[in-house]
Design goal:
Elements (H helix, E strand, L loop, with lengths): L2 H4 L2 E7 L15 E6 L3 E5 L5 E6 L10 E4 L5 E5 L9 H5 L4 E3 L16 H19 L7 H11 L3 H15 L18 E4 L1 E2 L17 E2 L2 H15 L8 E5 L8 H15 L10 E7 H6 L2 H9 L3 E9 L3 H6 L6 H17 L3 E9 L5 H13 L10 E5 L10 H10 L4 E3 L6
Parallel strand pairs: 8-11, 11-12, 12-13, 13-14, 14-15, 15-16
Antiparallel strand pairs: 1-2, 2-3, 3-4, 4-5, 5-6, 6-7, 9-10
The chain binds iron/sulfur cluster.
Length: 424
């Protein structure tokens, strides 16, 4: 190797556990390539696209922290926070890492990583590595290493941006929010749109689209699946989860949901090399959950997936529902909440979780009624179900909301976590 590559340690292919485990250090999964300098570790997916950067020098904030590039081409900083006590990140997020996103979101704990020069230096190290690979002489090089370098060089920043745009074009728009349950697989999902728009267009919502709800045709869905397979290419094998979008896929009905999931399963070969159950995620609403017939759950229960359905309840306080502009009434929310518990108890492979709002500007009765509901809800010991509290976007973006959160969590019979809004 010539001088430019002398100080690099290159691993063409490494295999971490395919299953993402909840561990404090390090967050590692799947098959990837790795290049290390004395100061940084760069990880690439099987298509040669940069995926993770982690600092190895003494100035890096913490050895467990890293930058991750999403399929939407956002660089997200994974922070372990500054509180390792029982009130640390894990107690309110259910994970050991707080993903710090580079766009406005609803985090109750803001880490301004863009102001940290040690983290910013990692961004500068990536184009420097790219330039070194570009300028390196490949004569006499191990063919596998040569192949890896050529793959990486095909994926410069412009290409990576264009690929994210292509993904949006395939599915017909950017996924503006992922279900909270996708945290279980570090938000690594393949998106497949089976419907657009939503039923309510709530006033408070910061992720809605202007469209009325409309299901996609099966022809459209099959075409997405075909293009997605080609888009993800070799890296497809690193995915074990499917997100059926968009904001209320449950309203699309049992036929479309089950057909889309089955076709994607077959085409993507999601299970082929896995020793664990693939996951299916979708959002639902109060109405779509109440309208869902038993046969939908029976069919979902027999799919090869373990399915998470996340429902936006928001509040059981009537004035709060009016205040946030959610056009459903308290009795419907309570009915849907009970249906969530019933489905969780009846179907082993389906887990419905629910979202409620949290925020200083909400009426006091909101928190009181929610705490009372969660305190008095008895859940069978299936270990399923979770409640997510989603901070309103205009709430103070710091920890002032955590006492409210813990107050509700500590009274609840169901696990409660904070919902961090993340796009794909
Ligand atoms: S909260 Fe859900 S139903 Fe309401 S506008 Fe947003 S996406 Fe639509």
């Amino acid at each position: 190797m010539n001088n430019l590559l002398n100080n690099l340690s290159i691993s063409v292919e490494k295999q971490d556990p395919a299953k993402i485990s909840k561990a404090s250090f390090p967050l590692r999964y799947g098959k990837y390539s790795e290049i290390k300098t004395s100061e940084y570790e760069f990880r690439f997916n099987l298509n040669g696209e940069i995926k993770f950067i982690r600092g190895l020098n003494v100035n890096w904030p913490h050895p467990a922290e890293q930058l991750k590039r999403t399929d939407g081409n956002d660089w997200v900083y994974y922070s372990i926070g500054d509180n390792s006590s029982e009130n640390g990140i894990n107690s309110w997020l259910g994970e050991y890492y707080l993903p710090c996103v580079p766009y406005p979101s609803n985090s109750i704990w803001e880490v301004n990583y863009l102001a940290n020069s040690n983290i910013m230096n990692a961004f500068a190290a990536w184009p420097q590595l790219y330039a070194n690979l570009y300028g390196a002489s490949t004569g006499g090089m191990n063919p596998k290493v040569k192949g890896l370098i050529s793959l990486i060089l095909k994926n410069d920043d412009r290409v990576l941006y264009e690929r994210s745009q292509k993904l949006n074009a395939i599915i017909g728009g950017r996924v503006s929010v992922l279900p909270p349950d996708t945290r279980h697989i570090d938000y690594e999902i393949i998106p497949l749109m089976i419907a657009d728009g939503c039923l309510y267009h709530c006033k408070f919502c910061c992720v809605k689209s202007a469209q009325q709800f409309k299901a996609r045709t099966m022809t459209d869905i099959l075409e997405q699946i075909r293009q997605l397979k080609s888009f993800y290419d070799r890296n497809l094998e690193n995915y074990n989860a499917l997100f059926l979008g968009n904001h209320d896929a449950l309203e699309a009905g049992h036929e479309l949901i089950c057909l889309a999931a089955s076709e994607a399963y077959k085409t993507f070969g999601i299970l082929d090399k896995r020793k664990f159950t693939p996951l299916l995620f979708l959002f639902g609403s109060v109405n779509s959950l109440l309208n869902s017939e038993n046969r939908l759950f029976e069919q979902l229960n027999h799919l090869p997936f373990y399915t998470y359905i996340n429902i936006g309840f928001e509040s059981i306080d009537e004035p709060t529902l009016k205040f946030i502009g959610k056009p459903v009434d308290r009795s419907k929310v309570l009915e849907a909440f009970q249906k969530m518990l019933d489905v969780n108890a009846a179907f082993a492979n389906i887990e419905i979780t629910g979202n409620f709002l949290m925020g200083e500007t909400l009426l006091p009765k909101h928190n009181q009624s929610l705490a009372e509901l969660l305190r008095n809800t008895s859940v069978p010991s299936t270990g399923k179900g979770a409640i997510y509290l989603s901070p309103l976007k205009d709430s103070p973006k710091k920890r002032e909301l955590l006492p409210q959160f813990y107050d509700i969590k500590n009274q609840s019979q169901i696990p409660v976590y904070v919902y961090l809004i993340q796009r794909l």
